[in-house]
């Protein structure tokens, strides 16, 4: 691949990763708001803490349907979130390494 083509590929991967994270957060927030009758902030908070695998325990699903959704959301969502963050982190490290190498060149 040419350097310019690599750059465009990296940017596209970054946007896909960010889009996946945003989509996960939107889906989780909508589901918890609708089925648990939580506020938008509570739903967003629970979604983010679930995807981050923090699990404070102050909120929890109360119906079998949302418990099942949460179990699947954890399995799928955490996997996607970790992959997306890995892509973004890798792109940042690659870009930073190129900047460092360019500054070292005589």
- The topology string of helices and strands comes to HHH
* Rg over CA atoms: 18 Å
Q: Total strand count, please?
A: 0
**What class do helices, strands and sheet pairing give?**
mainly alpha
Shape: elongated
Alpha-carbon distance between the termini?
26 Å
Number of helices: 3
Largest sheet: none
Low-confidence stretches at least 5 residues in length (pLDDT < 50)? none
The whole-number mean of residue pLDDT values reads 92
Task: Note the beta-strand portion.
Answer: under 5%
Query: Percent helix among the residues?
Result: over 70%
Notes on the protein architecture:
The protein is mainly α. It has three helices and no strands. The model has no long low-confidence stretch (mean pLDDT 92).
Salient structural properties:
single chain; 106 residues; mainly alpha; 3 helices; 0% strand; elongated
Brief sketch in words of this structure:
This protein has 106 residues and is mainly alpha-helical.
Write the layout of secondary structure elements.
Elements: H1 3-36, H2 40-51, H3 64-104
């Amino acid at each position: 691949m040419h350097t310019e083509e690599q750059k465009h590929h990296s940017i596209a991967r970054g946007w896909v990763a960010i889009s996946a994270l945003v989509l996960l957060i939107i889906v989780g927030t909508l589901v918890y708001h609708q089925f648990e009758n939580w506020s938008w902030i509570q739903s967003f908070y629970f979604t983010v803490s679930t995807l981050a695998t923090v699990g404070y325990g102050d909120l929890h699903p109360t119906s079998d349907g949302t418990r099942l959704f949460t179990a699947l959301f954890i399995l799928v969502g955490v996997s996607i979130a970790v992959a997306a963050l890995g892509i973004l982190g890798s792109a940042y490290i690659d870009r930073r390494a190129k900047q460092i190498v360019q500054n070292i060149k005589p």
